[in-house]
Amino acid sequence: FHYYSLVVDGAAVNDPGSETFYGSSRQSSGIEIPEKGVDFYEVKNVPHGEMRQFRYYSSVTGTWRRAFVYTPPDYDSNLKARYPILLLQHGGGEDERGWVVQGRTDIILDNLIAEKKAVPMLVVIDNSYAFKPGETPPPLRPPVGPPGSFRIVVSPTFGEVVVKDLLPALDKRYRTLADRDHRAIAGLSMGAAYAMQV
Question: Are 86 and 186 contacting, i.e. CB atoms less than 8 angstroms apart?
Answer without folding.
Answer: yes
